[in-house]
Amino acid sequence: MRTNLPVSRREHEMCDGMTLMSTTDLQSRLTYANAAFVEVSGFEIHELVGQPHNIVRHPDMPPEAFADMWATLQQDQSWSALVKNRRKNGDHYWVRANATGIKRQGRTVGYMSVRTKPGRDEVLAAEKLYAAFRTGRARGWRFHKGLVIRSGLLKGLSALQWMPAAWRVRLGVLGLLASCVAAASLPLGSMAATGALMAGAAALACLWIEQQVTRPLKAVLAHAQLVACGQPARQCSRRQTAGTVATRPDRSVLQAVPWCPDQ
Fold first, then answer.
1. Looking at the structure, do residues 86 and 65 belong to the same domain, yes or no?
2. Which of 52-56, 124-128, 140-144, 242-246 has the lowest mean pLDDT?
3. What distance in Å separates the CA atoms of residue 245 and residue 263, rounded to the nearest whole number?
4. Cα 176 to Cα 208: distance, rounded to the nearest angstrom
C-alpha cells in the first residue's frame, strides 16, 4: 500500500456545504477533480490529473478499508465510508466518501467519488475505530461495503447494517403475515382483539419499512439531486482547525461504523 509522508498532526476542516468530486480510470488514475477537491487537497490540478487517486491517502487509514472498497466496486455496488485523507503539506482532512462505478454501454469505464463533510462526532469515533484496526485490536470485526460489522458466527448481530433493502421489505411483509396467522387462530368471538392485532401489525410493518427503506432512500435521493444540479462548493474563509482531537466519541452517532473499539 502506498505510504504518503510526511504527515502533520494538523487537521484541515472542510467548510459546510463543500462537495469534493473526482473521477478515475479503471487503474484509479485521476481523470477529473473539481475545484473544491483541488482546494482542500492542497495540490494543483496538474499535480492530480494522471496520478493515482491514492496520492491523497493518509497512512492512518487501515488497508482493510480500501480492500473492502475495491471488493465492493468490483461487485458493481457503491461504497460509502468515512476517510481520512492527506493534504500536500502533510495536514489531514476527513470526508464521507461515496464511490461508484461509471458505466458506458453496460461496461464499467471508470469510477466517481463524491465526498462531503462528516459530523464531528463521526470523525472522533472513526479515528478511534481505525486506530483499533491498525493496532490489531479489531478482532471479530471487519469492513463490509463501508460498514464495520461483526465477523464469523456473530455476523448475525450486525444484520440490520448489511441486510439488502429487498430483505428489509420482506421482513416487514413476513411480520405482517405472521400477525395475520396469529389473528386467524383467535376465537371467532374475539373480533375486537383480532382487529386490534391486525391494525397494530400493519402499523408496525409500515413503521419498519419507513425506517429501514423509505427514509434512507429519501436521504440518498436528496443528496443525489444536490450533486446532479451542480451545487457549488462554498469558499472557506474562516480559520482552519488545527491539532488533534482527544475527546472520547459516542459510538451511537457514527452510523457507518457504530462500534467502540475498546469494548
1. yes
2. 242-246
3. 20
4. 11
